């Protein structure tokens, strides 16, 4: 009888820095982002509210067109799976890194941190599809405002690559 297992991660948090896209030797785009999630709790010792922040490294494959939209402070929903990789550093010490490998359609831009309402989702969010497109297809357009959460950046719905 085959055993069943599940490796699923769902995060809602804020980007700690702008997303960065690099390319493998074969030319495949790899976009990296860092998502901060926080939890609030009352300390049993002091009775005061405490906040813990956890940082998550997220990897998107073949998503070079998304980095333009994933900027520091934006609130995002990320769905994917956990993957741990290991390597030996220059001194021969084994190092480990656990990352969230995002699903191809598993990143949704919810809002920016500076929006009114403390970062609550506005308008249901925008799904950012991690579609592979030629780099020559361009990223940002010359939009003129309007269009969901992108209006403050001069990006319209027509500029979003999906």
Account of the protein in words:
This protein has 162 residues and is mainly β. The protein has one domain: OB fold (Dihydrolipoamide Acetyltransferase, E2P) (Beta Barrel), CATH 2.40.50.140. It has strands at residues 9-15, 20-23, 29-42, 49-61, 74-88, 94-112, 126-128. A 5-stranded mixed β-barrel has the order 1-3-4-6-5. The protein is globular. The termini are far apart.
For the structure shown, list the relevant keywords.
single chain, 162 residues, OB fold (Dihydrolipoamide Acetyltransferase, E2P), five-stranded mixed beta barrel
Annotate the secondary structure layout.
Elements: E1 9-15, E2 20-23, E3 29-42, E4 49-61, E5 74-88, E6 94-112, E7 126-128
Parallel strand pairs: 4-6
Antiparallel strand pairs: 1-3, 1-5, 2-3, 3-4, 5-6, 6-7
């Amino acid at each position: 009888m085959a055993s069943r297992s599940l490796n699923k991660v769902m995060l809602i948090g804020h980007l700690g820095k702008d997303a960065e896209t690099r390319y493998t030797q074969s030319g495949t785009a790899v976009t990296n982002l860092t998502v901060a999630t926080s939890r609030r709790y009352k300390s049993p010792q002091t009775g005061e509210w405490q906040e813990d922040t956890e940082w998550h490294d997220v990897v998107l494959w073949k998503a070079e067109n998304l980095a333009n939209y994933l900027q520091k402070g934006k609130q995002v929903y990320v769905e994917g799976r956990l993957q741990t990789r290991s390597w030996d550093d220059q001194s021969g010490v084994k190092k480990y890194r656990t990352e969230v490998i995002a699903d191809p359609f598993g990143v949704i831009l919810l809002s920016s941190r500076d929006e009114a309402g403390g970062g609550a989702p506005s308008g249901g969010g925008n799904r950012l599809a991690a579609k592979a497109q030629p780099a020559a297809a361009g990223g940002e357009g010359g939009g003129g405002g309007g269009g969901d959460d992108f209006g403050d950046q001069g990006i319209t719905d027509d500029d979003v690559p999906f």
